[in-house]
Amino acid sequence: MKAPPEPRLGQLIARLRAATWDLTPEEIADAVWLAQWVTPAARPDAGPGPEPAPVRDPDAPPATAPVTAPGTAIAPAPGAPPAPTGGGPVRHAERSGPVWLYAGGPRPPRREPARDGAFPIRVPMAASLPGLLDLQRSLRPLRGYRTLAEPPRGPLDEEATADRAARTGILEPLYRRGERRAAAMQLLMDASPSMVVWELMLEELRQSCAQLGAFSDVQVRYLHRAPDGTPLIGTSATPGRTPGSAHHPRPADQFRDPTGRRLTLVISDCVGPLWQEGRAQRLLHHWSLTSPLAVVQPLPPRLWPRTALPADAGLLTRDPGSGGRLGFAPEGYGPPPPPGALPVPVLLPTREALGAWARLLSGPGRTTVRGAAGWVLPAHPALRPPAPATGPAPAAGELLRAFRASASPGALRLAVHLAAVPLALPVMQVVQRAMLPDTGPMELAEVLLSGMLWQLPGPERGPGAGHWYEFADGVRELLLQSLDQGAAALVLKHCSEYVERHFGKGARNFSALAVARLSGRTTEAEEGRHPDAGEDGGGTEPELFAEVPARVVRWYQPLPADTGGNGELGEAERLLRLWHLQADPTLLHEAREHATPYARQPAHTPEGVRGRLVLGGILRALAGTEAVRRDATARTATLTEAVALLTEAHDHAEPGSTPHTEAALELASAHHARWQDDGDTAHLLAAERALRALPADDPTGTLRLGRVLLALAQVVPDPQAYAVDAAAELRAACDLLEAEDAPEPQLCAALLDRATALRLSAAPTDETLAVLDRAGRLAADDPLRLRRLTELARARTAAEAWAGADDAYTAAVDLTGPYSPWRCALLAEWGESLLRRARLDPASEALARAESVLREAFAISSGMDPGRPRVQLLLGRALVLRFGRQGFPPDLYESVHLLEAAARHAPDARTRAESWLDLGTARLTLHDERGPVALDSVVAAFTAAVREARDAPGGASGSVLAARASHRLGEVLERMGRPVAALAAHREAAREWSELTARHADVPWAEVQATREHVSRLSEP
To answer: Measured between alpha carbons, how far is 330 from 769 in angstroms, rounded to an integer?
Structure first.
């Protein structure tokens, strides 16, 4: 696998520019050429010998594995077994796990980022100007610009000089006509504080001019203000303090071009101190006498009257006959300009405005274009300083109303979308390009200058600097009212797609924090705590703005600590640890190639044990990737191989050793994964045996053992014994975690598992509620709060504390999204609880509330939701129960429709069996009450219920469902006059009851006695 291409030269130039080193292209080229001779490892004449250790560049991509050409075999480490030959399985492209990108706070971090999943990253910046290619095309007419000054004198024309001297007798030298030199471009950036947000636009203008091929030189300079107010020009946005240094600005007059060969674009919003004092206007007047210039104004035209250079629309004219002076005819009827005033074109940073200016300068004769211009005077007066603001700050509603009254539609839409993201300038530009690509700097300027945002202090400056803003109090909340949840999700989606498309393809990037998240893994950043924040909380929280595949940022992730040893197997361990951070399946495939030869060593050797342990862990992780999960056969084969390898490693490792403990934990995880696939409890029992061999003081092993026992308690017919053991193990695990000061989310999850075990073990309700109260104090995020409230509702339901259960269910539902599958499952569980309560108390309102809750669950469930048939079953039961109490026929008809749909589409056999059983009962009731249903359809429903009940897990050795369905089938057959078939059905029911009572299962004895009576009566001659 090869690393993605990197623009090394572009990065070098960007860093030199960021370091304010004013180097010419020739100097940079010389430095690059000399670098190959300075670096010993890169000398062309280097002879054979040991290579020096490579120096790791902190900003360079980490070498996670040797990079080889396609088809090249990786050389084995010394002493390693030979790599296996033969073709391996062909791997297709897989989608890697997600990496969340957060914007760090405006303050610099006080320590290195935490290593538990969060690491700094460079994210591509979005373009400030839309349509850079169109902008560059609009400037093409400047290739034809020619200065009106006399062309330079060429070399001496000896023949013409001699000929003229022979004819006239006067010796006067004659010269050839010199070639006109190409024009040069000077981009002069206003260095006032209000212009720092437009430095990316300056860089894009420079890039467009440099790639145009029309200029012999493109220079970027900055306009500064001296302490005495004098305009100064330097090569850096932060001028040097030492006079005479390379970065110390010089007087502006030294940069004036008297030849007219240099074109100047002044990038400014015309609101800085130099403009307020009139000094910038005087400088433009002085320069425009000899060379063309224009002002690039990023603010929208409606704000120009508020600046120090108000501009009017009109016609700009340039006539070579008058020396190339510009003329301007405003469209309005205002007063004429003062004597001595000169027009200066004011351009929007758009292709239309810049293209018109290019055509104006390059026209062959008198040229007229539409545009805008402001007037400057040789002694331009200063503006009156604004009056200080008095009174209280305007409220959020007033600020938003004022913005809506004057903002353009694009600016208003941009402000609404920015309410959903962190207000770092690079992130704002990413949102603008991703969501509103037709907007540009003008709309962003409207938002920044609207008065709704506050700029936060920060030390950085530059195109990649983190300029941070924050909405005024209450403004963000008001804007979010115009952005529903779906639109807010689209902001994240489109920003993620933009970052993924442009990752690693440019030199302009900005700093962010990347967090790789696997299923069930929580990092500090995901919990809303900035890893860079100190204990005093001085840091700011990171904010999510994009999610991209891990493969995109793989080459920018720092390697984990080298604790896995050397050689190929050590490399496999490092790649496996890196996968736990990034979730990139490619890492697992590479790790598998490194570990496979060692897994073939004899199992009794340390290398064989370690190789099987590493490869087994790799295969278990590989079985959880998306590509393998989609193929059930491949997943089963992968997990089976992992179990075999881990079993060998566990059996041959020395008991009590670290490899033995690691093998037991991995083996238990692999068995648990197999149980999740096929539901066979034998896998859970195998996991239990592996974990019970671990020391009792191991918190990880104790916690996993408790959870395996809890899973057994939830699937076996008699959960009491397993639930008691699970509660004991989980209590010990919680004590060990608390003693080790484990993270609060981990301890909270363990407490919730313990509460579940206590409920299943029929422990006192007070003990369960005490554990849940303790977990509630530790629950710091919505998923944990949701688990805690759900378990609280179940505990109160078991204790028949109905009011408290309803309150807990209501609070849990409020934590879910309106169309979340968790909401649907929670509503179905709540509805089932209410339905059980309605059967116990016919006088309560539980039945009406159960129908309402279940109808909401049915409304939000999708057609492909596997839980939808369960909701249909419960809703059908509620309607049958209501029909029995109120006798409303439409309830019975609707219940038949719902139960039949559930019976035909339920994904599990138990739900299908319950649905067929209830459907047969509903059809029989409909036959008795209304008569349109034949008894044959009732028989078919009960027969299907018996078949599905026996196919359900545990149904082969006695099932209450099968016994009930057989009993009711016998009753219907008896009504149809088929006593022999009825007797056979009742005997099947009696057999099911006998198998259940033989293993001391809890059975409804009234139904057992009824079955026996039917068998006895039908058996009589």
So the answer is: 80
- List, in sequence order, every residue forming a beta bridge with 186; answer none if it has no partner: 219, 264
pTM greater than 0.85 (yes/no) = no
Look at 276 and 93; give whichever has higher pLDDT: 276
pLDDT, position 431: 81
Confidence of residue 150 (pLDDT cuts 50, 70, 90): low
- Give the strand pairing for 293-296 and 175-177: unpaired
pLDDT score recorded for residue 152: 66
Please write the tens of the pLDDT for every residue from 215-270.
Answer: 888 999 999 988 888 899 988 877 655 555 556 788 888 888 888 888 999 999 89
Task: State how far the Cα of 945 lies from the Cα of 924, in Å rounded to an integer.
Answer: 14
905-910, long-range: CB < 8 A, 24+ apart: 905/868, 905/869, 906/869, 906/870, 906/873, 907/866, 907/869, 908/952, 909/948, 909/949, 909/951, 909/952, 909/953, 909/955, 910/948, 910/949, 910/952, 910/953, 910/955, 910/961
CA 237, distance to chain mean position in Å, is 34
Pairing, β 342-347 against β 367-376: antiparallel
Give the Cα separation of 387 and 273 in Å (integer): 16
Give the whole-angstrom CA distance, residue 296 versus residue 67. Answer: 47
Q: Check if the beta carbon of residue 701 is closer than 8 Å to that of residue 737.
A: no
> 120 - beta bridge partners?
513
Residue 104: Cβ-neighbour burial (10 angstroms; 0-12, 13-18, 19+): buried
Angle CA(525)–CA(527)–CA(533) in degrees, nearest 5? 50
pLDDT tens digits along 638-668: 999 999 999 999 999 988 888 889 999 999 9
**Residue reference for tokens 């249909």:** 872
64 is written with which tokens?
């996670």
Q: Copy the structure tokens of residue 112.
A: 């290195």
DSSP state of 231: E
Give the number of other CB atoms < 10 A from CB of residue 508. Answer: 23
Degrees to nearest 5, angle at CA 125 with 124 and 126: 120
Distance CA 1011, CA 528 (A): 61
- DSSP assignments along 112-179, one per residue: PPPSSSEEEEEEEPPPSSS-HHHHHHHTGGGGG---SSPPPEEEE-HHHHHHHHHHHS-----EEEPP
Q: CA–CA separation, 790 vs 822, rounded Å?
A: 11
| Cβ within 8 Å of residue 251, ≥6 positions away | 230, 231, 232, 233
> If you ran DSSP here, which 8-state letter would residue 424 be given?
B
**SS3 of residue 539 by DSSP:** coil
Question: CB-based contacts of 949: which residues, under 8 Å, 6+ apart?
Answer: 909, 910, 913, 917, 955, 959, 961, 962, 965
How far is Cα 120 from Cα 741, in angstroms, rounded to an integer? 27
Strand-pair partners of 344: 374
Residue 1019's SS3 state is helix
Q: Which residues of 169-204 are buried (b: 16+ CB within 10 A; e: fewer)?
A: eeeeeeeeeeeeeebbbbbbbbbbebbbbbbbbbbb
574's CB contacts (< 8 A; 6+ apart) are 64, 559, 560, 562, 564
Report helix, strand or coil for 331. coil
Q: Kindly list the distances between the CA atom of residue 712 and the CA atoms of 680, 684, 705, 724, in Å, as whole numbers in the listed order.
A: 10, 7, 11, 11
Pairing type for strands 262-267 and 184-190 reads: parallel
Residues 6 or more apart from 123 whose CB is under 8 A from it?
A: 101, 426, 430, 499, 503, 509, 510, 511, 512, 546
What is the Cα–Cα distance from 510 to 602, expressed in whole angstroms?
51
**Consecutive H or E run containing 200:** helix 199-212
